[in-house]
Input
Amino acid sequence: MKKIYNNIFPVKRFTSMVIWPFLFIRKDRAWAFNTIGERHEGTHGRQQKEMLVVGAIIAAVLAAAGCGWWSLLAIPLFFWWYGIEWLVRLCIYRNMMTAYKNISLEREAYANQYDLMYLDRRDAFAWIRYIKQ
Output
């Protein structure tokens, strides 16, 4: 992933964020970004690539069914899933940070960010196992 240092993205409370194939790192928090953060964001990069393929397939099917340009909304599937799951978790936990930490995509990334070899042996769509936990 291409690293982009800036002071806008992500929001101040966070150090880094992936929008594949880019890794955004806040300049004012760059001191806190390390190999653990890189593995965490690498997991999100893999998740985004997988869901991009699924979203593109859904978009193609919807376009073939006559949905027109609306079908393109399926392409950023990762971000739709992330946002909807965060809202569901927010209703459950009633705390923004607890909701964030319990998103299945985040649970996978946090659970494996210390494992040096995780990305080498990670199964596709591994985050699905973290939905019900």
